[in-house]
Design a protein that fits this description.
Layout (H helix, E strand, L loop, with lengths): L4 H12 L5 H16 L6 H7 L5 H7 L17 E9 L4 E7 L4 E8 L1 H4 L2 H15 L9 E7 L2 E7 L3 E3 H6 L6 H20 L2 E2 L8 E4 L4 E3 L6 E2 L3 H6 L13 H4 L8 H16 L9 H10 L5 H4 L5 H10 L11 H12 L13 H9 L7 H42 L1
Antiparallel strand pairs: 1-2, 2-3, 3-5, 4-5, 6-8, 7-10, 8-9
């Protein structure tokens, strides 16, 4: 688990309130990285509790379970009846609730009051709501409302009953190519919808792909979404790496200003890779080590790790994860063409493979892929003729060299 902006914010608050020392935070961060390297993901705040630097009560207060919205703020959110808490993180608490006016179940994300005093976090919260509200697609979690009441900032959205791709990967699932292609196709459609409306998601990853009980995939969490035309936001974020280290695009790592839709395609490719191999594309002891590999280390082809994958699937993932964005798919539209061809057992149209594109269909039809006997005979004749020509030239050059030596000898003797 990489330390993201939420972890950093929590640690900053801990230090500001003098609940821990900088040395204790460093020790907990080192311990967290060791746990992550061994496959045990744990937030740094939990590690602080494990090490005895922080008490559970202090952590609960910090997360707002007493003073923010960890209880049941039903009376504070008019028009909604809170049913139960679905989850909580450093940035928000999410509830399952009933929208009374329409008698339907919704999800409500509530910003803790401790973050309501931070203008940057409030703006990010509302930006997520505004971005989601402009997108209306079956494969995107639908926004319903974003507002403030009695000091609580909240974001109401579609309630998705099911799990995330991350949940299934954490349980040890490795997706069959056909199922992975189906899910990635749905998210590619969601991204095409967002990109055509001028938004880039910037945090595509397994945790942000929700799956309904009917296996409909929905892209969630527009918290890092940005309009491609928002130059002011781009300049303000220049030089900062926004995203999740295991899935982040190289240009995001470098903090480039002109991030575009191809960053989302890279992250989708990294997610695709994880789904069909059971491994993230690059691993390392620290987030910075992982990001360095995204920048510099060649990608191990996914079909080398999972030999059941077709070469077309491997080629598509490698094209999505090209380090130079000009080498990736131009847009999600071309990606969808290849995904649909792959679903029909056809070779990709855009992704370059190590074999000729026609070989994909030829192999599936059982036809011979070697040259015809007549072609072999003609090639052998051409090769024999070439060898004869080469031998003749060698004799001629030998004679010329001999005559040249003889003439030089005569000239020297006559001096």
């Amino acid at each position: 688990m990489a330390e993201g902006p939420e972890d950093s914010q929590i640690c900053r608050l801990l230090l500001e309130r003098q609940l821990v020392t900088p040395e204790e935070v460093r020790a907990a961060s080192d311990q967290r990285r060791q746990l992550s390297a061994s496959g045990h993901e744990r937030p740094v705040t939990e590690v602080l509790v494990d090490l005895g630097f922080l008490t559970r009560t202090q952590l609960q207060r910090l997360h707002g379970s007493n003073e923010d919205s960890g209880g049941r703020p039903a009376q504070q959110l008019p028009g909604y009846q809170i049913l139960n808490k679905c989850g909580a993180g450093a940035m928000a608490v999410v509830y399952r609730a009933k929208q009374l006016s329409l008698n339907r179940t919704v999800a409500i994300k509530v910003l803790p009051k401790r973050l309501s005093r931070n203008a940057e976090f409030v703006e990010r919260f509302y930006r997520e709501g505004r971005a989601a509200a402009q997108l209306n697609h079956a494969n995107i979690v639908q926004a319903i409302d974003v507002a403030e009441a009695n000091g609580y900032h909240y974001f109401v959205m579609e309630f998705v009953e099911g799990c995330t791709v991350y949940d299934e990967l954490a349980d040890g699932k490795v997706y069959a190519e056909e199922e992975a292609v189906d899910i990635i196709t749905q998210i590619a459609r969601a991204l095409l919808h967002a990109h055509e409306r001028g938004f880039i998601h910037r945090d595509v990853k397994p945790k942000n792909i929700m799956l309904t009980r009917e296996r409909v995939a929905k892209l969630a969490d527009m918290g890092l979404a940005r309009e491609t035309t928002d130059l002011q936001a781009a300049l303000a974020e220049a030089g900062r790496a926004y995203g999740t280290p295991y899935y982040i695009a190289p240009e995001q790592i470098r903090g480039e200003v002109d991030i575009d839709h191809r960053a989302d395609l890279y992250s989708l490719g990294a997610t695709f890779y994880h789904m069909v191999t059971g491994r993230v594309p690059f691993e390392g002891p620290t987030p910075s080590a992982v990001m360095h590999k995204h920048l510099k280390e060649p990608l191990t082809p996914p079909d080398h790790l999972n030999t059941n994958l077709t070469s077309g699937c491997g080629a598509m993932i490698e094209m999505l994860m090209a380090k130079n964005r000009d080498d990736r798919y131009p847009s999600a539209r071309e990606l969808l063409v290849d995904l649909e061809r792959l679903a029909r057992k056809q070779a990709p149209e855009y992704a370059q493979q190590n074999v000729e594109a026609g070989l994909f269909e030829t192999l599936s039809s059982g036809q011979s892929v070697g040259p015809a006997p007549q072609e072999v005979a003609e090639a052998a004749a051409r090769e024999s003729a070439a060898r004869g020509t080469a031998s003749t030239l060698a004799v001629v050059f030998g004679i010329v060299a001999g005559v040249s030596v003889l003439i030089n000898a005569i000239l020297l003797a006559s001096r």
